[in-house]
Amino acid sequence: MATWSNFNLQNSASPLMEQIIFFHDHTLIILIMITILVGYLMINLFFNKYINRFLLEGQMIELIWTIIPTITLIFIALPSLRLLYLLDELNNPLITLKSIGHQWYWSYEYSDFNNIEFDSYMINYEKSNINNFRLLDVDNRIILPMNNQIRIMVTATDVIHSWTIPSLGVKIDANPGRLNQTNLFINRPGIFFGQCSEICGANHSFMPIMIESISIKNFINWINNYS
Q: Does the entry feature the keyword Glycoprotein, yes or no (predicted)?
């Protein structure tokens, strides 16, 4: 989860988020190089006293400053396309979780198991245990096994919501009348927080998402106890 004075991305908990962070760093280095080069050229233009009264055209320099940005964009576009295809890749998911957005809470269904469905509301911080996270804790967590491919089906019943978990690299819209699909692969145990990131009404800020990642053995025990 995000902490105070954290200007960087959250620590990744999935291979996809690692790839997103790598792409972010790659693109940021290119932007810094461009900014330094353009800034240096502009400062030189401001402060030098060179004058060329006979300059009418410069075909070579125009060719150079057309080709170099094209090559730069290719260096950004190719990793970006690779990442887009990786984000859509889904191979043999172990389980399917259906997430349904409401005003203003989430409900979840484990489609592979009988009678496992529940609503997830934000906990009132003032009336709850002081150890809870304000505006992020819920009464019913999503329980998922780590180191397994998981399919997430997302929809909504009323308005557009957005199911977003930053540390897992997941952001997918929940549209009424439409079923969107994404995937998760959590590579470590822990608790991961997210929120609706589509402005969906008065209590938009108060429908958090909370995922608890556990081992497959503990997940099977949870399923048996829930049923």
A: no
